[in-house]
Amino acid sequence: MADRRRKPDPPAAPDDTAPVPEARKRAASPRAGAQRFSGTYAHVSLVNAIGQRIVRGDYPPGTILPNEAEWSEMFGVGRSVVREAVKMLMAKNLLASRPKVGSWVEPRERWNLLDRDVLTWYATSPDREGFLKAVQEFRHIIEPEAAALAAARRGEEQMQAISSACRQMGSAPTLSERTAADTAFHTAILRSAGNELLMPLGALIGSALESLFIFVTREADDLRHVQKLHEGIEKAILRQRPEAARRAVRRLLANTDQIIAEETIVRAASRSSRHAARAASG
Amino acid sequence: MADRRRKPDPPAAPDDTAPVPEARKRAASPRAGAQRFSGTYAHVSLVNAIGQRIVRGDYPPGTILPNEAEWSEMFGVGRSVVREAVKMLMAKNLLASRPKVGSWVEPRERWNLLDRDVLTWYATSPDREGFLKAVQEFRHIIEPEAAALAAARRGEEQMQAISSACRQMGSAPTLSERTAADTAFHTAILRSAGNELLMPLGALIGSALESLFIFVTREADDLRHVQKLHEGIEKAILRQRPEAARRAVRRLLANTDQIIAEETIVRAASRSSRHAARAASG
DNA sequence: CGTCAAGATATGTCGGACAAATAATACAAA
DNA sequence: TTTGTATTATTTGTCCGACATATCTTGACG
């Protein structure tokens, strides 16, 4: 779930580094079911909890969900909180509802899979491999063209944003910061492409990179190589060469494909070895 | 706004052609502001009203919106209805809010522009030309590749869905039905591509076609030509020729580009003639 | 000038009550 | 038996009022 609480633009934020208010006490007793997180509003917790369960497959499409009273009981929140959370999931087309029937899970092809939150839940679902495969294929479709458009139309500040992100990627001390810069790099390219419909896809790339960052360990040589690939993209856009940008992005994606493939093999091997161990011990 | 009230899958719907219950009486007096629509739930009306105003530009990004009490007053609904509507818009990233500050319009690049409802509001906004331009460019990126994937991976029933939609397009008696079949055709291709991330984009194509259907008059010759172009796509997918499918889609899109360009010229001309008339009379 | 305290105000949450929609059931009629 | 109709039960939809929480603003104080 994206952080809903950010400083609004108009009331200029004097200090955005202020710590998020933690340690919020709940008077309500934490009843059975999933726990509530302090520091977050109840409806946000609920949206995440229910959304994650749906995407994870706990309630397959067509299933009638627990009704409002049951959710309310399960999470120890008021009915209005449940209703607002359900409405948010409806807005993402994960749910629909009717009086006397209840709420049910919508068929998967209606889900707003490109939504930030839904992507996050998908990325942490058991089908992570399916997620990575789909996202990566999608990137192959989108990103080369986006880079080509960016090479053709990018403005001066946009170019600076791209270069800056690329530099930060190279000098990031931690993998986490590197991933953030990586996401910023690709998002900046999408923005530079001059088509606002492309921008929501930044969340897609971000969740893919984050998923890779969490599960894949990478060696120094590899990181250097990846950095060179990114610089190749930057250079092509800087020089306003659409075809070169397209090719450079394809090279990067091919590299990522390879990493995913290797990781998949490793995971499959460890899985089968676990199976073997279990079979041997059983 | 997509119709939220549909028959759920599990309780098999015996008759889906039953008329939507109209003529619902409101006890509450219709106060100032936008009117409520009978037959629809209040929160749906509110989501549409507020969402449309935001996308249309009535409240530019950064603007603090009226607070809950004011919306409540404006539309003559209770505060909970307002809150649920606002939550749905938050789920689409059009809004964010904070206690003591209020709700504000999020920067445009955070909007979930690929969402069905947001697209609908965008399509009816004053910037319809910008909308069509962006969507059409996006189609150029997505659809050729989707068709190529479909040609490579389509199943038997998926092929039947494509062919059926293509046939229905050819024999549709009204333009409205033709547009519906057209949308079904492209949606079926997206589904056949075997990447679920592509499926939400059906809404994009649908809204583009609907927008064209509403504003563009087309001649019989033109329609025949378009039909042939669609059949070319169908044939390529039927024969499982990815490259041919890609090319066929590009031909169709080039044709659509031309139609949009012509329409744009016509509208610009009528606009300037109106200006001229006004200038002459003023 | 900077820091901290108090007030003001918008959203967040709770609880209860009633309205509306509709699936399911019971029942009457053909 | 079948068909159509009224009743019932249940779930979501809406309203209201109260209070909690967050946080911007203001002002006192060092």
From TrEMBL, chains A, B:
Presence of the UniProt keyword Translocase in the record: no
GO terms assigned for molecular function: DNA binding; DNA-binding transcription factor activity
Any Pfam family matching the protein: GntR
UniProt superkingdom: Bacteria
Every HTH gntR-type domain range: 40-108
PROSITE patterns referenced in this protein's UniProt entry, alphabetically: HTH_GNTR
UniProt xrefs under Gene3D superfamilies: GntR ligand-binding domain-like (1.20.120.530), Winged helix-like DNA-binding domain superfamily/Winged helix DNA-binding domain (1.10.10.10)
Keyword tags: DNA-binding, Transcription, Transcription regulation
Matching InterPro entries: GntR_C, TF_FadR/GntR_C, Tscrpt_reg_HTH_GntR, WH-like_DNA-bd_sf, WH_DNA-bd_sf
Location of the region described as Disordered in the Swiss-Prot/TrEMBL record: 1-34
Signal peptide: none
Protein name: FadR/GntR family transcriptional regulator
The species this protein was found in: Microbaculum marinum
